[in-house]
Specification:
With 408 residues, the protein is an alpha/beta fold. The protein has 17 helices and 13 strands. The strands form two sheets. Strands 3-2-1-4-5-6-7 form a seven-stranded parallel sheet, with helices on both faces. A six-stranded parallel sheet has the order 10-9-8-11-12-13, sandwiched between helices. Strand 6, helix 7 and strand 7 form a beta-alpha-beta unit. Helix 4 packs across helix 5 and helix 14 packs across helix 16. The longest helix is centred in the first third of the chain and has 25 residues. The protein starts with a helix and ends with a helix.
Length: 408
């Protein structure tokens, strides 16, 4: 009864059939991401800027680089300022737990009021943001879509909260089949009939147009890539679950001489999300003498020159269809990844997959020493991106979910 009363307080008449339904996207921003656009955020951007049949409103909890990017793209957004929307460290003391819980409740109230004021029909968020916005949207009588982007085994802090979104979400989207299976098998309230697999989308035509005007030799020179070097991209934020330390210890260090003979160099492209972990990487490079086979450019705002310049991508984390792998395929770059990424990297087609991280060394060296194989796999990657990950398929699948929830 209380829920029904609150819903009536928040609710307002919906859009008429002749108007576009408004879809609100809540994108959670952490302090570490203030100057970065991560893979998940870029996937959200690709979707929300390709929904011509719906009016889009983006809701942020911080005014940072993402807000600037939304302004540049002409996407309407609002900022409900709150810097401490995180469950990190809540187990360490009762005071932190109570404080974060109170912030979550207050933020939900603000989200509910915003949904009512703006006439939002559907609110969408990623799984780790659900408790900050989902209850507020539901109490306001709005439909809730939760997109799962991370497997529960990847980020330890997720394990305790992983099932919660399945309690309240009207529809659930998993960005890989592996992830869909995890949600269905581990979720509450029988999520199978509410869960769809929709891959992240890549604007294949935009990639093709962007690359058509680039000079690969000039891009490589501008990035400090030596002539004859095999440039290997390790793309992702510097944080524990990306496994850069393990890549250094288990793959690069034991095969350093073979990599030098192949003129291979690993370029770690990503901003720091965990300084202690980044310091550990730097110490390993010094201790193991790997400065000549690794480079650490940091966060890259414009990846186009790098995608023009790279020869292959190494992806050590067991993350499934990470955006990095989709972009590599669209740009014609073969990848070496874990078997959990088999939907984005077809073994022997547009790259190789391995069960264990340590096994990445063999395929990396094989590709580093065979330019013809890299070229053939690159072409197959472009075909895969066009057939499986094109943004138009992504957009149509999401639009169908929204229309079904709205009842039109």
């Amino acid at each position: 009864m209380r829920s029904a009363r609150l819903s009536r307080v928040f609710s307002r008449p919906g859009k008429s059939d002749g108007q576009k339904a408004k879809i609100a996207f809540f994108i959670l921003r952490s302090k570490e991401e203030a100057t970065q656009l991560t893979g998940g955020t870029l996937s959200n951007l690709a979707l929300l800027t390709n929904l011509p049949d719906h009016e889009v409103l983006v809701v942020l909890n911080a005014h940072d680089i993402l807000a600037e990017e939304l302004s540049r793209r002409g996407v309407r957004f609002v900022v409900l300022e709150e810097s401490e929307l995180s469950w990190r460290h809540v187990r360490r003391d009762l005071r932190t737990m109570v404080t974060r819980g109170a912030k979550a409740l207050w933020f939900n109230a603000r989200i509910g009021a915003l949904c009512a004021r703006e006439g939002v029909s559907v609110l969408q968020c990623d799984e780790m943001a659900t408790l900050f916005v989902g209850p507020g949207a539901k109490l306001a009588g709005r439909k809730l879509v939760v997109a799962y982007r991370n497997h529960p085994g990847i980020v330890p802090v997720m394990r305790a909260l992983y099932k919660v979104p399945t309690l309240i979400a009207d529809r659930i989207v998993a960005t890989s089949e592996l992830l869909r299976e995890a949600v269905v098998s581990q979720g509450w309230r029988h999520p199978g009939d509410r869960t769809s697999r929709i891959y992240n989308g890549i604007d294949v035509e935009r990639v093709k147009a962007s690359m058509a005007g680039r000079d690969r030799a000039a891009d490589r020179a501008s990035l400090g890539i030596a002539e004859g070097e095999v440039a290997i991209g390790v793309i992702g934020s510097i944080v524990g679950f990306k496994l850069q330390v393990e890549l250094l210890e288990q793959v690069i260090a034991p095969h350093a001489e073979e990599l030098r003979a192949a003129k291979a160099r690993f370029h770690f492209l990503g901003g720091v999300k965990n300084q202690e972990y980044a310091d550990r990487c730097a110490q390993l490079v010094r201790d193991l003498g790997l400065s000549d086979v690794t480079a650490w450019p940091g966060y890259i705002a414009d990846m186009a020159p790098w995608y023009s310049a790279l020869d292959l991508v190494a992806f050590p984390a067991p993350e499934g269809t990470a955006r990095t792998l989709l972009e590599a395929a669209a740009h014609g770059i073969p990848s070496v990844a874990r078997q959990t990424s088999k939907e984005a990297v077809l073994d022997g087609e547009n790259g190789f997959t391995c069960a264990e991280l340590v096994d990445l060394a063999g395929p990396i060296l094989r590709l580093a020493n065979d330019a013809g194989l890299r070229a053939r796999m690159g072409e197959r990657g472009r075909a895969l991106a066009a057939s499986r990950f094109d943004i138009h398929r992504n957009r149509e699948a999401y639009s169908a979910i929204y229309e079904a929830l709205i009842g039109r």
